[in-house]
Design brief:
With 645 residues, the chain is mainly beta. The protein has two domains: 204 residues, Sandwich (Immunoglobulin-like), CATH 2.60.40; 305 residues, no CATH class. Helices cover 4% and strands 42% of the residues.
Length: 645
Amino acid sequence: MSRTLIRLAVLGVALAPTCSVAVASQSIHPTPPPETRAVPLQGEIRLDGRLDEAVWQTAPPATDFRQAQPHEGQPATQRTEVRFAFDGAALYVGARMFDDHGAAGVRTRLVRRDGAPNSDYVEVIFDTYHDHIGRLFFTVNPSGVRGDANGLGGGSDDSWDPVWEVKTAIDSLGWTAEMRIPLSQLRYPATAEEQTWGLQIWRQENRLNELSQWSFWGLTEAGGPPRFGHLRGLVIRRAPGRAEVLPYMVGRSANVPVSDPNDPFQKAHTWDGRGGVDARLLLTSNLTLNATVNPDFGQVEVDPAVVNLSAFETFFEERRPFFVEGAGYFGFGSLNCFFCSNVSSLGMFYTRRIGRPPQAPDNVDAAGGVYADQPHNTTILGAAKLTGRTPTGWSIGALDAVTRRERAAFLKSDGTRGDVTVEPFTNYFVARVAKDLRGGATVLRAIGTSVVRELDDPFLADRLSRHAESFGLGTEMWFGKREYRLMAQLAGTQVAGDTAAMLRLQTASARYFQRPDRGNGSNGLLSDAYDPALTALRGVGAYARFARESGHLLWELSTNVRTPGFENNDISFLNRADYWWMSGNIFPQWTKPTRWYRQLLFIAGGQQQYNFDGDLTDRQLQLFGFIQPPSGPRTSPPIPARMWC
């Protein structure tokens, strides 16, 4: 059944969050970059937000900020000075944000870490490898609310929470911030020579709706690390020790009324405990080895409660520290669009598959159990990963994890007890390598994954695949001084197991091979037909996009493909297969303020989708408009995030 949709949208005013998002790379600085120097620290810094130490008087400041909003390219109305110092253990940042209204002009709010405070802020971004790709973000507002994100290796992960300190103060001149960032929390080249890092600094002056930047690029230009300035003068003689052991213990107590007195596993008062450990070892200043034993979901925020009445799984973000750190080194590439819907990226790795809830809880019912004691999550016996970047431009990410066989105790109606396996012993493996060329303007990626299960229970063999593999190649290229970009990804998957397990995949909501309207097809190299005797499922996924991403008139053409047999849900997140999607948009924008608007843009285009039987399954036309009033608050238009950070 096809679907035709016409969308009209006009977006008015919306508040903008701190800019900590993904930005792509470029080989050269389009304009001579600004520079500043970090100086060696003599003496000590008392971290109190008061810039009264001698080093803050002698270190050269990063200044001469220019407006990104509202008056693009003009000097910032409020002076900003940011200085840098270092010793053998940490990097120090001293920032003075002047305000011509003094303390009365400072706008601030107290929110949670990484929250959007809608206030003044200063954000310091380091490209520590100076590869024009990776970034580390450190943000603070006048109330001392910290924000941080890790974009090394590509992407940007807001859940990264490094250990660093910052103090702020508000005074008659405006406000100040004093940061101490331990070098153990950073990654940088292994060299005893003076280092040069990429550097960008943003300042938001909320009272004036003014956003300014130290290394300037225009709203119609693609920005990011290739347009960063330079932080020179860093001489790190020896990498600080980075051997960390983080044990944890969790105790749980439950006091609930017993709803069924016949259930022997239901207690009015229960308690239990568990423990585990995360460890990190710096092998070199470029490569880090992480290990974990039994990481626990209780270490982090609880997943939000959801009611899912669909046939598709709910996606939850990863928050376990072991899997969060270095996540960018496992990225295969993302899906970008100016305007699109009902489409997803070609994801190859979803860490929440490791340590997931048991997949066969109904094995208890098959064994005749009336009451059962089911485990909540699968125990991770151990996991290790290696992440980092070599001096020759290779980014490496490799992970191996082993999960325990989980068993559930049960009671039958005749009073006999037993236990059954609800999750098999499983090994997960992922490896990704990437090479950047042309100073970061071209990035080549390759990724491989494997899942192997020990299925010694016939019930589990009927439900789960015995092994699943995938392999992918991808690239990202910029042309014409970051005016045009090509993104391309291609991946193949194979899943094998007993016929009953493969039949479940064929009839799953991702493909519905049993549909009466499907063509006959065949199961050759690629799987595309219903076959109860099938023991392996193979498929291909692909994504490509070519776009103009700088200038006043932008455009894009993109396509996204999943053959019917594509299946990587054992180690990734897959909702749909069997589609060929295509899209195109044009994107004119006006960024010079007038009496009618501060910024104006439109997006017009369309998309359509077919399945591999040739049926039209989706078609839509869209027209999107955004206008920012000349006197309204700074807003976030849907222009590509790379133009902002």
